[in-house]
Amino acid sequence: MPQAMEIGLLGCQLCGKVCRKPATGVAHCPRCGTQLYAREPASVARTWALLIAAIAMYIPANLLPVMRTSYLGDDSADTIISGVVYFLLDGDWPLALIIFTASVLVPLLKILALICLLVSVQSGSVRLRRERTALYRATELTGRWSMVDVFVIALLTALVQSGAFASVRPDIGALAFCAMVILTMLAAMSFDPRLIWDNRAR
Amino acid sequence: MHAARRGISPIWVVPIAALIASAWLVYQAVIRHGPTILIHFENAEGIEAGKTRLKYLSVDLGKVTRIHFAATGTGVEVEAELAPGTESRLTETTRFWVVRPRLEATGVSGLGTLFSGAFIGMDPGEGGKARRKFRALEDPPRILSHQSGSIFSLWSPDLHSLSIGSPVYFRRIQVGSVVGYELSEDHTQVLIEIFVESPHDTFVDPGSRFWSVSGLQVEASAQGIQVDLESLVSLATGGIAFDVPESPGSARPVPEGHLFPLHRNRRQSEQQAVVGTYPFLIHFNESVRGLNRDAAVEFRGLQVGTVREILPARSIGPGEVRIGVLIGLDPGLLPYSTDSELTIGWERRLEWVGRLAASGARAQLKTGNLLTGQKYVDIDVYPNAAPVEVVADMGYPVIPSISGSLQGITDSVASILSRLESVDIAAIGRNINAAARGASELANDAGLRETLAHLNASSRQLDTLLATVNGRAGPVLDNATRASADLSILVRDASAAMRQMEATLQSLEASTSADGRMGNEVMKAMRELSAAARAIRAMAEYLERHPEALISGKK
Known about the structure:
The structure holds 2 protein chains of 2 kinds. Chain A is of the alpha+beta class. Chain A has helices at 43-63, 80-89, 93-122, 129-142, 148-159, 172-190; strands at 9-11, 18-20, 27-28, 35-36, 67-71, 74-78, 166-170. Chain A has a 3-stranded antiparallel beta sheet with strand order 6-5-7. In chain A, strands 1-2 form a two-stranded antiparallel ribbon. Helix content of chain B is 34%, strand content 29%. In chain B, the strands form 5 sheets. Chain B has an 8-stranded mixed beta sheet with strand order 23-24-20-21-22-19-26-25. In chain B, strands 5-8-2-3-4-1-9 form a 7-stranded mixed beta sheet, with no helix packed on it.
């Protein structure tokens, strides 16, 4: 099966419209005006860079407290893991599972998936191309759902503000977590899945 | 494509920045730990691992991480992790204590911990060797290191009603508090430490007087009844007040380790300071009722010491009991003093008492206040006092005593009574009885009655006689009047004669004085005249006595 690039066609990265590649110059999508590339320039390098940044942020996001609650003068800080442990010990294991999946497991899997994709693309692997594409689509989709924790903290901070009586405020870990999620999303976006299909001659 | 060809894409700034940020965050939170310390507590009440905080001035400095029993001895050891940067404040002077809600007489503290749970208070030290193991205080410290002021030491025979935290007043303004007390090494005094806040501490002078304002003081002493109340707080908790003898600006610094005496009350503090006292004993053979501990020992009204103790009575012979009174006396305040030798030993003090006694000094119990009956010991000089031998008893030199003034009166009354006792009142009674009986016999005697009847009759006759005389008195008086008129003429004539005679005498005198020729005759005439005059006087006297002679003639 010939590739689109080979028969002079370009797919718009944004709206998906298939355009004919002009002989010279830069092509623009006639529908949305996005600059068209056969392959995203420096996609692998950019993805690597953002992914490394995300991994760097993953450590403080899980080690540092994300939320600081003060209740009647008693201050306590919670990390994501301590929150999961708290719910688990409390017998609320479904909630613990959700938090653990959304906040710890999913970002980790995403990072692993992206590493997997990048390594396979760079090594020019031709195996399981369909599955890898499906993996990429899943990675891109689940990205935004990792923000559940951040939403919870943001909500609590807004709701529980009773001065000295009780208050909740985000801690530095939440910032790191947020940065980590955004960086993985950007990394996933900067990865060009069309690279999976290159290197047919092997 | 161009960027890639040129080498490094600017996108790599992102992971580098992320790595740096992440590393810094992790370093801050995990790698850069503060110091871990061990605090020993008597018990772990209110302390929870992972929850209890350490605070200094309400600032969170760390958290308790572990609690376990002390490896040696009793109590628990609490492991706590402190914030980074606190290392320099952990020295041997750093103090820890548990802050719990506390209700004390002086106020309420730590109410915030009612809800939040206890926390460990910390007072960072200043200087000293670095340390990581501490022993927590039982109670919160009264002075935190950031409070400036001075600590002064007082001594007192007892604690009065003071407690830790009792206020210290200067002109009735609270300027500090009691921060500690302990028994002295020999257990004879209480040493009290007070903290006076800056800048009031600069007013404390070595001459400052401290007195207790504990509670309500009603005191009956040799000076009368005295009621004192400093403030309502001190009524409940006790307190200390002080003043300065001179103007505040001239306060001299208090030397290190200076001990101020804590007086029982303001009045006592204003009396002459009895500085160093030594024990002396006085034996009294009389009742010491009304003599109290701390009663004054005075020398002619100047306080020179106080009564320290009244010892139990002891028998020293048949019918003789004496009571020893131990006094603290400042020999420097008495005359016949002395030098520093008194401090050397009681033998030297005994010598001093010997000199004192030889000069006639004697102790005496005196009543200071007749209303309350309070007594004091008076030392005075009695030059006529019988010499005594000065002895020591129980290791104390004995100051000789004489019985008290009231005692003297009692003694003389007793001696009068004893003399009266020797009089045989029964015999006197018997005699009186006998005399009365005799009188009664006499009164009942028949002869006496007869005599009295005769006497009655005689007086009646006398009455009759007098009535008769009265009846005849009229003519007699007429005669008498006439006689007296004649007499008056006679007297007039006599007077004329006298005048003539006077004149004659004058001329006579003139002649006699001129020469003594007529002397003898004159003298003879004079003698005759004198005889005549005597005759006239005799007649006049006779007439006076017997006027009836004018009628009846001389018998």
